[in-house]
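User: Please fill in residues for this 117-position structure.
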């Protein structure tokens, strides 16, 4: 079983920065991927950034070089540094672990990011 607790979401003005954190506990198989997703009201949940099976990082097109995903395995933490935030970045941000062996997804409860004009 895996549990995630996201934090760091806040109200910020356009152009500002936030650093989201995800604290993980529990365990799964070693064949997994981890990343950040977001969901705005009335929209589908979408991938923001993630680590692949070999640690290769991918970003959504809308990131446009503004965000950086990182992790600290020793502390069981995953981070998302977000710079140059835009109002359209407003959403609930979730960390996710996908167990590629069992094909199960584990989600945190999310942290709210609100970017004002």
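Assistant: Residues filled in for all 117 positions:
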């Amino acid at each position: 079983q895996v549990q995630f607790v996201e934090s760091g979401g806040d109200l910020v003005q356009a152009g500002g920065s936030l650093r989201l954190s995800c604290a993980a506990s529990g365990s799964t198989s070693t064949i997994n991927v981890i990343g950040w997703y977001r969901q705005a009201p009335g929209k589908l949940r979408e991938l923001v950034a993630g680590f692949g099976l070999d640690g290769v990082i991918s970003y959504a097109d809308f990131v446009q070089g503004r965000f950086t995903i990182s992790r600290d395995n020793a502390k069981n933490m995953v981070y998302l540094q977000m710079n140059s935030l835009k109002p359209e970045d407003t959403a609930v941000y979730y960390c996710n672990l996908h167990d590629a062996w069992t094909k199960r997804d584990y989600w945190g409860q999310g942290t709210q990011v609100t970017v004002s004009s």
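For context: The mean pLDDT is 92.
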